[in-house]
Amino acid sequence: MALDVLKDIKEAEEKAESEVKAAQLQSKEILKDAQLQAQKMHDDIVNKAKEEAESIMNHAIKEGEDESVPIFKAGKEQKGEILDSSKEVLDHAVKIVIERIVSVSGNS
């Protein structure tokens, strides 16, 4: 009877040890899976943030380009006006100089 009890205790200890090892192995698997899942979630979040940042930047660039079109057009028109008025001023100055030269030299 005492031998049977000792045998039962030994079997219970072996079974408990086996279950502890299985639980440790299972906990390692769960931890590994959790780490992989966390890494995947991290990567997904980073990728989504990059895509969103790129989208925001592209939108801002397009908006800036759209706003710059009328500014460039107005600048081009002003440049043309300045060049035209400069030519008129230059022509007028040349005419005055010629008139003075002609009137001073008497060749009218």
Automatic annotation (TrEMBL):
It comes from Clostridium algidicarnis DSM 15099. Residues 6-33 form a coiled coil. Keywords: ATP synthesis, Coiled coil, Hydrogen ion transport, Ion transport, Transport. This is V/A-type H+-transporting ATPase subunit G/H. It comes from the Bacteria. GO terms for biological process: ATP biosynthetic process; proton transmembrane transport. InterPro entries: ATP_synth_B-like_membr_sf.
